[in-house]
Amino acid sequence: MPSDATPDDIAQAARRHVVDGLKATHLRVKQACRRFQQLDAGTGAVERQALVVHVLDELTVHAALEQELLYPALREAAGAHARLVEAAERNLVELHALINPLRTLKPEGEQHAARFVALCQRALAHMKWEEARLFPGLESLAVDWARLEGGMDQRREELVVAEAPVVAPT
Torsions phi, psi of 129, nearest 5? Predict the structure, then answer.
């Protein structure tokens, strides 16, 4: 950011960074869900399971960032937009209800695949809703975007490390 940047410039750049980070997750999840459905259950089983784990990890981090940081900041500033934040929070509760059982189900079998497809459909609907309804209204909210950006970046790093698989040394 140039040294002559105004506080509004800094806030706009931070808001863009926050939203772009969330949209990047949306794109990765969309691509993984599409790829899962393209693969044959038999010959693509290993790749399908890797995609499931990837999507579960992406959604877990994404949901935590929204629940812990984004939604509380928006709720505080939302005023008339508070209903949008409440709807977004309800959507996350529904996603968690689909994510948690998938972490414990054995990957073999149709029930696992069917639950994953249902999760993808719900996640894609949530993401589409966020991009069409929630994100466009963020510009007008009086949020400390620079602080939120820093908090989300730091928390994302913590969560990604926590979600990373442990690899045994060889």
Answer: -60, -45
The whole-angstrom separation of Cα 78 and Cα 113 is 38
Q: 3-state class of 2 per DSSP?
A: coil
DSSP secondary structure letter of residue 4: T
In the chain, the N- to C-terminal Cα span, in Å, equals 44
What are 141's two structure tokens?
Answer: 């909210």
* Residue 161, token pair as written in the block: 């490390």
User: Any idea what DSSP says for residue 165?
Assistant: P
Q: What are the angstrom distances between the C-alpha of 51 and each of 10, 39, 68, 116, 163?
A: 36, 10, 25, 10, 14
CA dist., res. 21 & res. 153, Å (int): 9
Name the nearest CA neighbour of 11 among 142, 160, 165.
142
Q: Where do the structural domains in the chain lie, given as residue ranges?
A: 8-160
Structural tokens at position 158: 């913590």
pLDDT tens figures, 148-160:
999 999 999 999 8
pLDDT at 112: 87
Q: In terms of pTM, does the model score above 0.70?
A: yes
